[in-house]
Amino acid sequence: MKIIFVISLLSIFAFTINKNADTNAAKHPAIKWCKGHQLNWKDFKGRVPVSSYNAAQTAYEVGFDVNMVGNEFKFIVTCNFLPHRSWVRKKDASDHILRHEQLHFDIAEIHARRMRKELKNANITPRNLQTKADKIYKKNWDALVQMQKDYDRESNHSINRKEQAQWDKKIMRLLGENLKYASECK
Predict the structure, then answer these.
(1) Contact at 8 Å (CB) between 66 and 87?
(2) What is the mean pLDDT of residues 143-159?
């Protein structure tokens, strides 16, 4: 079972099931979240939509795959930045905006860790796999979407520098939790 949802932030919150890679995705493969790796503006390969007034947009996917190892389920939760769906207006490409965008990606990793922890600790059997795994995914996905909305609303998309600084501290603190469930960097 493989479920991957894609979210585009800052303008419209929407998700789609990602079944087929498009040609832009093949040219610009996803960037796995990894401690110490920071996004840079060269990672933002998408086209700026004419209809958007935002400075930038970060797109990512959080999904999971499950394998049977012996008589246990092994869940692989991924958190990836999508260069072909992420964009920046060149005139707005500042360090401040880049930090704001990095934190959107970090929020996704926070929830990926929470999902890894819950899936590992859930009493999942072949009989309840679909129901329990979907419930855990949905709960964490909904919390992720809500945190992204709160982050943009409270920081006013990084314009409110005081709130932006508070969110920076909060996100760093939350990344410090569940370190045991951080994305593996390979």
Answers:
(1) no
(2) 98
